[in-house]
From TrEMBL:
It comes from Pseudonocardia xishanensis. The lineage of its organism: Bacteria, Bacillati, Actinomycetota, Actinomycetes, Pseudonocardiales. This is ABM domain-containing protein. Residues 7-96 form the ABM domain. Pfam families: ABM (PF03992). InterPro entries: ABM_dom, Dimeric_a/b-barrel.
């Protein structure tokens, strides 16, 4: 993968049944840590409608390599401290690159 291509990380996080609402709050704080990284272009968390225990962390990074560098930084430990004990298991994640995008009619007004 080319290092100068912006990539999107999608991380799937499952909250424990008794802590999903706390996880939602914790993720609001945690993404501020991600957003503070020079390698982070944008970050968003979405919560499942049909499955409210499932959260998807969407992070646009300057490159996969820069994301991996962030994972080795002290800031990653700070990010993890916000969600520690609130997840049902380890997150699953992968990197993607956009191949096509359009705004829908509702967005165009």
């Amino acid at each position: 993968m080319e290092s100068d291509v912006t990539v999107r990380e999608l991380a799937y996080l499952r909250g424990r049944g008794d802590s999903a609402d706390r996880l939602e709050s914790a993720l609001r704080e945690a993404i501020a840590v991600l957003a503070g990284s020079e390698a982070c272009v944008a970050v968003e968390v979405v919560r499942g409608v049909e499955d409210p225990l499932l959260f998807v962390l969407c992070v646009d990074w300057t490159s996969v390599e820069d994301h991996m560098d962030f994972r080795d930084s002290p800031a990653m430990a700070e990010y993890r401290s916000h969600v520690a004990g609130l997840l049902a298991g380890p997150p699953e994640f992968a990197h993607y690159r956009s191949t096509a995008a359009l705004a829908g009619s509702a967005a165009r007004g």
